[in-house]
Design brief:
Layout lengths: L3 E4 L2 E12 L5 E6 L4 E3 L2 E3 L6 H13 L6 E11 L4 E12 L9 E2 L6 E6 L7 E2 L2 H8 L9 E6 L2
Length: about 160
């Protein structure tokens, strides 16, 4: 059972995401959703599951990879859409993998999304749901060992 709560026009969720750099740190792997929206690979945390196990499980399910992951950002996002106010707590991990180990446009199991390598220099052209993490990614913080707490509010 995933950690998501819904009430009238409000929603809360706990999520994990992976900021996966290629070997020369010029690209990151994103999941292309519908409506020109992109997300970092990952998903929801299950009840009684810690964030490290959740991201490892998600990457195995979605991309069939196992890699070293380092927790980099804890993000509290308060997002507003026309129909819903959404509060998410996200745990974002960084990793580096060989670009050739992931096929471009790898089709997800649900068939609705693709995973694509995006040049970091072009990130501003993409609508990435985790907006506060987007700018951090451009600075290529994979070598910095500090854990950062980010609060992002749209409402």
């Amino acid at each position: 059972m995933i950690i998501t709560m819904k009430e009238d026009r409000m929603r809360f969720g706990a999520r994990v995401g992976a900021i996966i750099y290629n070997e020369d740190k010029t690209k990151i792997l994103l999941e292309h959703q519908s409506n020109e929206l992109y997300m970092f690979p990952g998903g929801r945390i299950d009840v009684h599951e810690d964030s490290q196990n959740a991201i490892s499980r998600e990457l195995k399910e979605e991309l069939n990879i196992k890699t070293d992951l380092k927790l980099k950002y804890i993000v509290e996002m308060f997002l507003k859409s026309p129909k819903t106010k959404y509060h998410e707590i996200g745990f974002y991990f960084v990793a580096e993998i060989n670009e050739d180990s992931i096929e471009n446009n790898f089709k997800s199991l649900d068939g609705d999304s693709n995973f694509v390598w995006i040049p970091i220099k072009d990130l501003d052209k993409y609508n990435i749901l985790a907006k506060p993490v987007k700018d951090k990614v451009k600075n290529c913080g994979i070598t910095d060992n500090t854990l950062e707490h980010i609060v992002y509010r749209e409402y």
